[in-house]
Amino acid sequence: MSRRKKIYEGKAKILYEGPEPGTLVQYFKDDATAFNNKKKATLEGKGVLNNRISEFIMLNLGRVGVPTHFIRRLNMREQLVREVEIIPLEVICRNVAAGSISQRLGIPEGDALPRSIVEFCYKNDSLNDPLVAEEHITAFNWASTQEIDDIISLTLRVNDFLSGMFAAVGIRLIDFKLEFGRLYEGDMVRTVLADEISPDSCRLWDIETNEKMDKDRFRRDLGNVTEAYAEVARRLGIMKEAPRAANDEAWK
Ligand code: 5GP
């Protein structure tokens, strides 16, 4: 394999220079981290699963008119994406209380929220991605008011689409995290969905049993992490045999 220029290495993914200007290759690692890197592991096959699940979701969002950075999957661990300027926000959408909102506001985990809630966190590991208000975002120029409006409406569209898509396969979408970027096209700039959408960035519970099928299995030491991700892929019809998902050979 020819050596490519590494643009950025994150906790779960690496970005390489793409084959054409304005493109990048997004490589999915098997590394899992939680609690801002305090807990680490390698989960064999996780990157392969997230590459496929994120491809499936981004493609389907594109089909319903949500602009994304996704171009196409290249192989079992890589996808070609458009180069965007990442907006330094983690945009969280919640339907059911869990995780930090339960801790922060004392709402029991599993309680349905009165309506879907969109939150913004400033994307900064050394500060633990703190929750911020729109006032901070505009005052510090992280995004404009127009971009915030676009982000909220896109996030709610993603929520509607994903909630229905997962419900159809017996999964409840509890919450998820999105990232957005600025796509420059000539004189135009567009806000598009970037990064990934996978069980690493969503909370997914079985509709019947409330069993967790996401990264909380890793965060809370529940075991069978890749098996749960493979079950999500299997239910979405991405693959036929759940146990084979963890095996790179199955994806060639
Ligand atoms: P919470 O704020 O409750 O910890 O997380 C809310 C949702 O956003 C969960 O689905 C969680 O997986 C996702 N999320 C929050 N922060 C991050 C992050 O830094 N990386 C990823 N992959 N997901 C995150």
What topology does this entry show?
Blueprint: E1 6-9, E2 13-17, E3 23-28, E4 31-34, E5 39-42, H1 46-63, E6 70-73, E7 78-82, E8 85-86, E9 89-96, H2 99-105, E10 112-122, E11 131-132, H3 134-139, H4 145-167, E12 171-185, E13 188-194, E14 202-206, H5 216-219, H6 225-235
Antiparallel strand pairs: 1-2, 2-3, 3-7, 4-5, 6-7, 8-12, 9-10, 9-12, 10-11, 12-13, 12-14
The structure holds guanosine-5'-monophosphate (5GP).
Catalytic activity: 5-amino-1-(5-phospho-D-ribosyl)imidazole-4-carboxylate + L-aspartate + ATP = (2S)-2-[5-amino-1-(5-phospho-beta-D-ribosyl)imidazole-4-carboxamido]succinate + ADP + phosphate + 2 H(+)
Pathway: Purine metabolism; IMP biosynthesis via de novo pathway; 5-amino-1-(5-phospho-D-ribosyl)imidazole-4-carboxamide from 5-amino-1-(5-phospho-D-ribosyl)imidazole-4-carboxylate: step 1/2
Family: Belongs to the SAICAR synthetase family.
Ligands bound to this protein structure: guanosine-5'-monophosphate
Determine the N-to-C terminus distance.
17 Å
What characterizes the major β-sheet?
Answer: 7 strands, antiparallel
Q: Looking at this structure, what is the CATH superfamily of the largest domain? A: ATP-grasp fold, B domain
Over all CA atoms, what is the radius of gyration?
18 Å
**In CATH, what is the class of the largest domain?**
Alpha Beta
* Shape verdict: globular
**In CATH terms, what is the fold-level topology of the largest domain?**
D-amino Acid Aminotransferase, Chain A, domain 1
CATH architecture tag of the largest domain: 2-Layer Sandwich
Average residue pLDDT: 94
What structural class do helix, strand and pairing data support? alpha+beta
Number of helices: 6
For the secondary structure, the number of strands is 14
